Amino acid sequence: NAASLKTVELGSNVTKINKSAFEGTKALTEISLPDTVRAISAYAFKNSGLVTANIGNGVVRIGTEAFADNAALKEVILGENLEKLGEGAFMNCVALTKINLPANVNDFDMTAFKGCKALKKIAVANDNANYKVAAGAIYSMDGKTLVAVANNTLKELKIADGTEVIAANAF
């Protein structure tokens, strides 16, 4: 791999980042994807040196462990057309403190953020038709399923009335 690669500028014809494309690029600290990129495959940026990642508005799917094990990753800006976060997409990104899920996200669970020890807040866009935030937790829009609780420092949580199911990996 290109362990000394520090910067990458993607051309406007790039539509997909394939499996493990930038895996292990420890010198790469920042990536900004153009809106032409539609998909980020599994392990694409795993175990790199990323501190910031700006996911362009064209990205619809982020694959399994695509950004996993980026210990320095502090800031992620998810594009507004993102629909799916794969399992472990940001797993073990221990410096990540918050994430904002855009309106189109319709498929994710807490495995996307497993091991993100500093993660205190997952916000959901107000116009997201699938998820909502209530009392610090993410619920299905109908309130029947507790999907995720991000705050690792919680000592107490009251699960909302009307909740029928606690999703796998919610905590």
Topology, please?
Elements: E1 16-17, E2 30-32, E3 39-40, E4 52-54, E5 61-62, E6 75-77, E7 84-85, E8 98-101, E9 121-124, E10 131-134, E11 137-140, E12 145-149, E13 165-166
Parallel strand pairs: 1-3, 2-4, 3-5, 4-6, 5-7, 8-9, 12-13
Antiparallel strand pairs: 10-11, 11-12
Write up what this structure looks like.
It is built from no helices and 13 strands. It is globular. It is mostly beta strands and 171 residues long. It has strands at residues 16-17, 30-32, 39-40, 52-54, 61-62, 75-77, 84-85, 98-101, 121-124, 131-134, 137-140, 145-149, 165-166. A four-stranded parallel beta sheet has the order 1-3-5-7, with no helix packed on it. Strands 10-11-12-13 form a four-stranded mixed beta sheet, with no helix packed on it. The mean pLDDT is 92.
In short:
The protein is mainly beta.
Main features:
single chain; 171 residues; 4-stranded parallel sheet; 4-stranded mixed sheet
What is the general shape?
globular
Q: Provide mean pLDDT, rounded.
A: 92
The total of beta strands comes to: 13
Distance between the termini: 35 Å
Q: Count every helix, treating DSSP H or I runs of 4 or more residues as helices.
A: 0
Percent helix, as a range, is under 10%
What share of residues are in beta strands?
15-25%
Tell me about the biggest sheet? Answer: 4 strands, parallel
Strand order of the largest sheet: 1-3-5-7
What structural class should be given to the helix and strand makeup?
mainly beta
Low-confidence stretches: none
Order of helices and strands: EEEEEEEEEEEEE
Radius of gyration: 16 Å
